[in-house]
C-alpha cells in the first residue's frame, strides 16, 4: 500500500536495510546492480512539510526537476499538486509527458534557444525567467513572430555571499553567470515597456544549493523587494515573487537539516509585505534523502599500504564525489561484523572514480551489497555512458511494493543512435 510515513527512507530491520518496507536484497534479486532505489513516502513527506510551512500565504511549489527527472517521480509530484521548474526543452518535454500543464511550468536557465522559447510559448508556460538583456529581446522577437505575448519574470542576482559546500553550487553571488546584476535590473524593467510582446509578471532569484539557514535570504530579500517595488511603480502588473530553492539536506549523519521554520519565517514576511503569490523551487530537498544507489562489491584490493573496495557502480553512475568532492554515507545492506579504513572505488578507468577515500567503511567482501545514501538528487540525472557502461536501473518503492521506473540500459542501447555505415552528403 502507498506510504505516507515520515520515518527515514531506508531503515534496518533484523540486520537488513529496507527501502520503506521492502528489503533491498529483494529489489536487487529482481533488477540487479547498480540500481537507484527511491522511496515515495519520503518525497510525499518533504513536499507536505514545505506546503505546511508556507500554507499561510498564496504559494506554489515548483520542483526543480534537474535534480531528478524520472517520469514516475515527476508523476508522483504532479499528483501531489506540485509544479516544475525546468531548464531545457527536454525537461519541458518530460514535464508534459508526466502530466504537467503549461501553467505548472516555470522555465529557467541562462541559455534558452529560439526553439526552446518557441516550445515554451506553445505550451503556455506560467513564466519564462529572463537572465540577460539579449534573451529578453529574443523572447520578444519570438513571441511577436508567433503572434503572442510572453509571460516573463526577471531573475535578479542579489549579489550576496552564500555559504555552500562547493563553489559550483553558488548562483547568487556577484560574478556568477546567473541572473541580472542588481544594478541592471531597473534598466531591464524599463526596457520591457518598449517591447510589445513580453509582459513582466514576476521577479525572482535563486541563491544556490545546500543553504542551511535563512541568513542569505535575509540579506537578499530586501534587494528583491526593492526591485519588485520599482517594477510596480512603473506600472507592471507583478503577480509572482520567486525565491528559488536550495534548501540543504544532510549528507553526513550528524548534519542537521535546513532550518525550515527560520527560512519560512523570513520568506513569509516578505511575501505578506508584497501580497504576491510566492513561488518556491526546491529540488534536492524533495528527493535527495529519498534515494540510494545500491551496488555490489566486486573485489577487495590491497596496494601501497592502502585497502580498496571495488564496486560495480562507478563515477558514471554517481559523479558527485568526483565533481563536487561530495560526501555520501555508505552502509552495508546486510549488517557487517566490523569496519575497515579503505577507499571505495568503481571500475571506471579514472583516478577520480571513487565514492569515498580513507573512510571507515563496512568490512565487506565480494558479493556484498552497499547502499550509497542521499543519492536521490543529481544522481541518475547526471549519469553517463562513460567507458561504454549502460546506465543503471531505477526503482520506486511505495510502502511494501516496488516497481521498475527505468529499465537498465542494454549494450544495444549504447550504439542505438550511432552509425558505422555512413551515408555521406555534400553541401
Q: How would you characterize the largest beta sheet?
A: 9 strands, mixed
Number of domains: 2
Mean pLDDT figure: 93
Low-confidence stretches: 168-174
Tell me roughly what share of residues is in helical segments: 25-40%
Could you tell me the radius of gyration in angstroms? 23 Å
Counted beta strands: 21
Class derived from helix and strand content:
alpha/beta
Walk me through the topology.
Blueprint: E1 10-13, E2 16-19, E3 22-23, H1 24-31, E4 35-39, H2 40-53, E5 59-64, H3 71-79, E6 83-86, H4 89-97, E7 105-107, H5 114-123, E8 127-130, H6 133-146, E9 150-157, E10 180-181, H7 185-192, E11 198-204, H8 215-233, E12 240-242, H9 260-274, E13 277-280, H10 284-287, E14 291-303, E15 306-311, H11 320-324, E16 330-332, E17 339-345, E18 354-362, E19 369-372, E20 393-398, E21 401-406, H12 411-414
Parallel strand pairs: 4-20, 5-6, 5-13, 6-7, 7-8, 8-9, 9-10, 9-11, 11-12, 12-13, 15-17
Antiparallel strand pairs: 1-2, 2-3, 4-14, 14-15, 14-19, 16-19, 17-18, 20-21
Helix pairs in contact: 5-6, 8-9
Amino acid at each position: 500500500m502507498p506510504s505516507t510515513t515520515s520515518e527515514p527512507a531506508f531503515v534496518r530491520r533484523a540486520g537488513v536495510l529496507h527501502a520503506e518496507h521492502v528489503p533491498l536484497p529483494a529489489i536487487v534479486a529482481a533488477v540487479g546492480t547498480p540500481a537507484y532505489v527511491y522511496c515515495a513516502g519520503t518525497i510525499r513527506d518533504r513536499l507536505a512539510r514545505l506546503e505546511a510551512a508556507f500554507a499561510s500565504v498564496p504559494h506554489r511549489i515548483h520542483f526543480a526537476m534537474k535534480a531528478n527527472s524520472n517520469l514516475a517521480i515527476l508523476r508522483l509530484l504532479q499528483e501531489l499538486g506540485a509544479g516544475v521548474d525546468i531548464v531545457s526543452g527536454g525537461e519541458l518535454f518530460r514535464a508534459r509527458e508526466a502530466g504537467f500543464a503549461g501553467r505548472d511550468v516555470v522555465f529557467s536557465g541562462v541559455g534558452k534557444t529560439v526553439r526552446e522559447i518557441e516550445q515554451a510559448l506553445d505550451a503556455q508556460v506560467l513564466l519564462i525567467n529572463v537572465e540577460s538583456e539579449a534573451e529578453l529581446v529574443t523572447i520578444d522577437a519570438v513571441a511577436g513572430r508567433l503572434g503572442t505575448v510572453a509571460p516573463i519574470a526577471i531573475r535578479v542576482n542579489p549579489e550576496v555571499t552564500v555559504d555552500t559546500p562547493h563553489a559550483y553550487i553558488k548562483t547568487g553571488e556577484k560574478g556568477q553567470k546567473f541572473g541580472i546584476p542588481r544594478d541592471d535590473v531597473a534598466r531591464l524593467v524599463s526596457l520591457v515597456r518598449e517591447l510589445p510582446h513580453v509582459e513582466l509578471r514576476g521577479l525572482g532569484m535563486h541563491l544556490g544549493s545546500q543553504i542551511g539557514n535563512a541568513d542569505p535570504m535575509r540579506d537578499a530579500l530586501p534587494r528583491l523587494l526593492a526591485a519588485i517595488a520599482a517594477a510596480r511603480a512603473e506600472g507592471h502588473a507583478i503577480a509572482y515573487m520567486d525565491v528559488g530553492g536550495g534548501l540543504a539536506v544532510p549528507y553526513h549523519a550528524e548534519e542537521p537539516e535546513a532550518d525550515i521554520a527560520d527560512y519560512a519565517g523570513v520568506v513569509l514576511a516578505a511575501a505578506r509585505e508584497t501580497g504576491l503569490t510566492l513561488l518556491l523551487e526546491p529540488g534536492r530537498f524533495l528527493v535527495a534523502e529519498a534515494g540510494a544507489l545500491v551496488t555490489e562489491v566486486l573485489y577487495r584490493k590491497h596496494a601501497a599500504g592502502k585497502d580498496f573496495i571495488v564496486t560495480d557502480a562507478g563515477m558514471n553512475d554517481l559523479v558527485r564525489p568526483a565533481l563536487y568532492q561530495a560526501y555520501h554515507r555508505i552502509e552495508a545492506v546486510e549488517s557487517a561484523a566490523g569496519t575497515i579504513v579503505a577507499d571505495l572505488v568503481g571500475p571506471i578507468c579514472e583516478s577520480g572514480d571513487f565514492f569515498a577515500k580513507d573512510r571507515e567503511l563496512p568490512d565487506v567482501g565480494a558479493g556484498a551489497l552497499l547502499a550509497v545514501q542521499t543519492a536521490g538528487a543529481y544522481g541518475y540525472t547526471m549519469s553517463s555512458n562513460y567507458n561504454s557502461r549502460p546506465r543503471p536501473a531505477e526503482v520506486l518503492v511505495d510502502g511494501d511494493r516496488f516497481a521498475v521506473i527505468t529499465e537498465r540500459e542494454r549494450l544495444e542501447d549504447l550504439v542505438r543512435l550511432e552509425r558505422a555505415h555512413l551515408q555521406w552528403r555534400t553541401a
